[in-house]
Specification:
- The protein has six helices and two strands.
- The chain is of the alpha+beta class.
- It folds into two domains: about 5-95, no CATH class; about 105-155.
- A two-stranded antiparallel sheet has the order 1-2.
- β1 and β2 form a beta hairpin.
- The longest helix is centred in the middle third of the chain and has 24 residues, at about 80-105.
Length: about 160
C-alpha cells in the first residue's frame, strides 16, 4: 500500500490527476500513485497500529491493523504539481520521438516505405487495412538488412 491521493495538498493532487490523464495504463490506481511518488520524489509516511478487539460470541479476540497515510510537507509544491507533471510527460514524449526517428533512419528506404504505407492504412477501414497488408506481402519484401522482429511484426497477420 502507499499514500492515498486524498492525503496530498491540492496542488500536488492536481499534478497526480494530470499524471493519470497523461500516462494512461491498465493497472490499479495504487500503481499510479506509486509511480507518481517515485518519479516526483513525493515524501509520505505510511504507518499502522494494532487494535485489540474482544469479539462477542467468538474466540479468540481479534487483532486488527489500522492504517494511516500522512503527507510530509517538507517539499516544494512545484516539484510535483500539474506543470511539473506536464513537463515530465513532454520530456518523455520528445525522447520517444527521437528514438523512433533514430530507428526509422537506420532502416533501408524500402522498409521505411512499407512502414509509411501501413501507418497510412491504419486510419482506414479494417478491410482496407487488410487489403493493403496482403498487397504488401505479395508485391514487396522486407529488406534482408532489417531486423527479424520487423519482418515478423509486419507480416504476422497478413
Amino acid at each position: 500500500m502507499g499514500i492515498l491521493p486524498n492525503c496530498l495538498p491540492k496542488e500536488i493532487y492536481a499534478g497526480y490527476l494530470k499524471f493519470k490523464e497523461l500516462f494512461i495504463q491498465q493497472i490499479l490506481e495504487f500503481e499510479y500513485m506509486l509511480q507518481f511518488t517515485m518519479i516526483f520524489k513525493v515524501p509520505w509516511i505510511r504507518s499502522w497500529t494494532f487494535q485489540y478487539q474482544e469479539a462477542k460470541d467468538s474466540s479468540p479476540p481479534w487483532l486488527n491493523r489500522q492504517f494511516d497515510s500522512k503527507w510530509c510537507d517538507k517539499m516544494k509544491i512545484s516539484q510535483a504539481n500539474e506543470q511539473a507533471t506536464t513537463k515530465h510527460y513532454q520530456e518523455i514524449y520528445i525522447q520517444k520521438l527521437e528514438v523512433e526517428d533514430t530507428f526509422i533512419n537506420s532502416l533501408p528506404q524500402s522498409d521505411v516505405d512499407l512502414i509509411t504505407r501501413i501507418k497510412d492504412a491504419a486510419t482506414s477501414s479494417p478491410e482496407e487495412h487488410q487489403r493493403l497488408l496482403q498487397e504488401i506481402c505479395q508485391t514487396s519484401s522486407v529488406s534482408d538488412d532489417s531486423p527479424k522482429s520487423i519482418k515478423n511484426d509486419l507480416f504476422q497477420d497478413a
